Amino acid sequence: MAKKVQIAPSILSADFGKLSAEIAEVQPFSDRIHFDVMDGHFVPNISFGAPILKWVKTKLPIDVHLMIERPWLYLGDFVKAGGDLIIVHSEVCAKTGKNSLVNVLKIVKRLGAKTGVSIKPKTSVETLVKQLGKKWLSHLDQILIMTVEPGFGGQSFMPKMVGKIGQLRKMGFKGDIAIDGGINAKTGKVCVEAGADILIAGNYIFGAKDRVKAVKSLR
Fold first, then answer.
1. Catalytic residue among 31, 36, 176, 197
2. Which of 31, 39, 141, 180 is labelled catalytic?
């Protein structure tokens, strides 16, 4: 039997004036909620922080995607606010020292959350694996492949990024592979066929007249 793909609506595209209702509408048909954090430095946009996360009411796991320059300063805040899995970007972490990717992931684990790492389109799988080392590649819960440049919703999907899924598997990664950026029924199918475990979609779901139909079309 084929592995069931998980759907993670990104609330970045939801109406924050009625956030609870927006989440409640898609929750029964989704598997997790995706919470994008942007600082205006690592990416050219600003979103929201831990105080908003405290108000997110859901029975689903919450994946917090930190698109920020110094994630290690805020890990505790986001875990305390309700983040179940914390995703940091490999590009902002030092190669060695206390702010290295491995050390940041160790902090996340000590805080009691699951660990995730995201890579931008220009970051190769080889670069990520070298940063992690074989030990952490096997311990990591999720790797998030960006199929657009992070920062804004509604961008066009980059087909060449799909090849990273197979590369990660060949290098021994057995955790969840998530895809974010330009996901819809067509691009989602391509990613799932390539081996993706989680599809993250914002505009495609919350911009649809029928959100439930949009979520179901990704399966």
1. 36
2. 180
Work out the pLDDT band at 2, boundaries 50, 70, 90: low
- Look up 180 and say whether it is catalytic: yes
CATH dotted code for 6-217? 3.20.20.70
Residue in the block written with tokens 């592979």: 177
**Which residue ranges make up each domain of the chain?**
6-217
Active site residue 15: no
- Cβ partners under 8 Å of residue 217, min gap 6: 184, 185, 188
pLDDT single digits (tens) 61-114: 999 999 999 999 999 999 999 999 999 999 999 888 999 999 999 999 999 999
Contact of 216 with 29, CB cutoff 8 Å: yes
